[in-house]
């Protein structure tokens, strides 16, 4: 994409233009995802960090300084999110080992108790009610991804849309759902 076009889309995105956000995501997705895939060597982590990178970048788009390349700014955000993830995992593992010592080495029974199952069902019912508050196209991508467990490519094929559009829709749907849940 031509540099002036990128700058125009950044300006439009700063003004809240959703199409500009989509264009920026389409333009830079592979750069950020590829960077994370090399770092994490894990497709799921790379995809998760890439989605969070764009989410954070779009939330903070007004803080972007055009004296720097947009791609560099995205990669920096992405790198910091990866570092945070590593720290969080290390801290969690160390806490687990400190708290349980030899118990960590034992195989855990992951079968939920009757009480756990009841809580899970209640939480699921609440979540489904919250999902129903979303617009139908957001409900559809949430259901296909998390309840039907389809990949982005499968959802794109099902809805006859490009994969990057599905990623953007899912990102927006999750943000809107999070807002609904936190308002409770």
Strand content: under 5%
> How many structural domains?
2
What low-confidence regions span 5 or more consecutive residues with pLDDT below 50?
none
Structural category is mainly alpha
Overview of the molecule:
- The chain has 184 residues and is mainly α.
- The chain has two domains: 3-96, Rna Polymerase Sigma Factor, Chain: A, CATH 1.10.1740; 109-183, Winged helix-like DNA-binding domain superfamily/Winged helix DNA-binding domain (Arc Repressor Mutant, subunit A), CATH 1.10.10.10.
- The protein contains eight helices and no strands.
- α3 (43-59) crosses α4 and α7 packs across α8.
- The N and C termini lie far apart (42 Å).
- This is RNA polymerase sigma-70 factor.
- GO terms for molecular function: DNA binding; sigma factor activity.
- Residues 32-91 form the RNA polymerase sigma-70 region domain.
Break the fold down into its secondary structure elements and pairings.
Layout: H1 3-14, H2 18-40, H3 43-59, H4 70-100, H5 114-131, H6 136-147, H7 152-159, H8 163-183
Helix pairs in contact: 1-2, 2-3, 2-4, 3-4, 6-8, 7-8
GO molecular function, one term: DNA binding
Family: Belongs to the sigma-70 factor family. ECF subfamily.
InterPro entries: RNA_pol_sigma-70-like, RNA_pol_sigma-70_dom, RNA_pol_sigma70_r2, RNA_pol_sigma70_r4_t2, RNA_pol_sigma_r2, RNA_pol_sigma_r3/r4-like, WH-like_DNA-bd_sf
């Amino acid at each position: 994409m031509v540099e002036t076009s990128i700058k125009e889309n950044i300006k439009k995105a700063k003004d809240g233009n959703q199409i500009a956000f989509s264009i920026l995501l389409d333009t830079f997705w592979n750069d950020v995802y590829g960077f994370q895939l090399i770092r994490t060597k894990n497709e799921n982590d790379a995809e998760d960090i890439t989605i969070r990178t764009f989410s954070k970048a779009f939330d903070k788009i007004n803080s972007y300084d055009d004296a720097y390349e947009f791609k560099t700014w995205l990669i920096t955000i992405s790198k910091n999110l990866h570092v945070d993830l590593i720290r969080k995992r290390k801290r969690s593992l160390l806490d687990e080992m400190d708290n349980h010592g030899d118990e960590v080495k034992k195989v855990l029974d992951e079968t939920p108790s009757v009480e756990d199952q009841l809580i899970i069902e209640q939480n699921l019912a609440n979540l489904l009610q919250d999902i129903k508050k979303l617009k139908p196209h957001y409900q559809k991508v949430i259901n296909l991804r998390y309840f039907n467990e389809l990949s982005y490519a499968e959802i794109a094929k099902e809805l006859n849309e490009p994969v990057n559009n599905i990623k953007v829709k899912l990102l927006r749907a999750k943000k809107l759902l999070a807002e609904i849940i936190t308002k409770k």
